[in-house]
Amino acid sequence: MNIILFGPPGAGKGTQAEKMISHYNLPHLSTGNIFRENIKNKTELGKKVTLILDAGKLVPDETVVELVTDELKKEKYKSGVIFDGFPRTVKQAEELDTYLQANGENIDTFITLNVPEQELIDRILSRGQGRSDDTPEKIKTRLQVYRDETEPVLNHYKNKDVVKEIDGVGTIEEIFERITSALS
Ligand code: AMP
């Protein structure tokens, strides 16, 4: 089962992904986590993307797609994956679809978490993860980037009839319950 967990920054993708990992026994692929890990370990990739993440902009499609397609070759993804924070552009979505099709697979479900913008900002500012891109100014940039470049990915998958829209306001448990019923 290949699932995309989609939504703006602060929508709760990471939190819900964590719960889905154990519930569905699927691995999680978060491009943001991979980039942060590379920055922490000062790898070549980390050096390449540090300033981009700091600014709240998007890493170039080519770099992201190469990273994801390499990662997906690992044995742990053989039964499926929960994508979190990827794809973030229509180009990435198209490349992902092509890659999956070449392997006889596709995206089974695209879950999008709907949360009003003010709540997104409040959540990010209060989550206190110490992320360098969690400042009011960077959040503004990330939301703008989301609207301009990422939101069109929703329509891309609506055309494929795999989208489940989930109300992302409520407790973590309530939202998780909505996700599991949408997937059942
Ligand atoms: P996230 O943890 O998903 O919020 O991602 C943090 C940052 O990593 C984003 O603001 C981007 O700079 C970068 N990033 C993560 N995933 C992608 C992606 N699929 N495409 C481009 N940039 C990404």
Brief overview:
With 184 residues, the chain is α/β, with parallel strands linked by helices.
Structural descriptors:
184 residues, alpha/beta, Rossmann fold, five-stranded parallel β-sheet, globular, binds adenosine monophosphate
Task: Walk me through this protein's architecture.
The protein has 184 residues and is an alpha/beta fold. The protein has nine helices and five strands, in the order βαβαααβαβαααβα. The chain has helices spanning 13-24, 31-40, 44-55, 61-72, 90-102, 117-127, 136-150, 152-158, 172-183, and strands at residues 2-6, 28-30, 81-84, 109-114, 163-167. A five-stranded parallel beta sheet has the order 2-3-1-4-5. The longest helix has 15 residues, at 136-150. The chain starts with a strand and ends with a helix. The structure holds adenosine monophosphate. Adenosine monophosphate binds next to α2 and α3.
